[in-house]
């Protein structure tokens, strides 16, 4: 079993769970069906990342932690409450953007240590999709009326 890689990948996995649940928690607050579908699309990308990371953890002999952790739970509660109080799509999109951006920064800092080549490549692919999500959210923010 490759403990250091498994531990790091589980932390990346928790971040993906946080993102997945964040999109799930606020999508129903968006009245515009087209915009809501865009959020579900981004959520599905996080689901794909969850599956890929979980598979890699299992390949290394570990067990994927299938939750978002306490800090993720608290962040989701705050986001859900915030989205309930502020129904404006741009406000919600900006909150999602900020969360995605912070998640990327946390993963980039986390992986400064040593990951095996295959795990490092996987995390880089995940980061690439997360950066694409940021661009997509930026586009939605610019093109969504207040």
From TrEMBL:
It comes from the Bacteria. InterPro entries: DUF2383, Ferritin-like, Ferritin-like_SF. SUPFAM superfamilies: Ferritin-like. Residues 6-112 form the DUF2383 domain. It holds the Pfam family DUF2383. This is DUF2383 domain-containing protein. It comes from Geosporobacter subterraneus DSM 17957.
């Amino acid at each position: 079993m490759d403990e250091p890689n498994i531990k790091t990948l589980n932390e990346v996995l928790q971040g993906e769970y946080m993102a997945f649940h964040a999109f799930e928690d606020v999508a129903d607050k968006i009245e515009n069906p087209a915009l809501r579908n865009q959020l579900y699309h981004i959520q599905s990308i996080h689901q794909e990342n969850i599956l890929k990371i979980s598979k890699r953890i299992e390949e290394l002999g570990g067990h994927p932690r299938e939750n978002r952790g306490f800090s993720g739970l608290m962040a989701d509660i705050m986001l859900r409450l915030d989205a309930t109080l502020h129904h404006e799509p741009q406000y919600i999109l900006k909150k999602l953007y900020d969360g995605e951006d912070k998640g990327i920064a946390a993963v980039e800092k986390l992986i400064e240590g040593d990951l095996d080549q295959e795990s490092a490549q996987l995390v880089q692919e995940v980061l690439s999709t997360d950066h694409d999500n940021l661009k997509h959210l930026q586009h939605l923010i610019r093109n969504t009326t207040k």
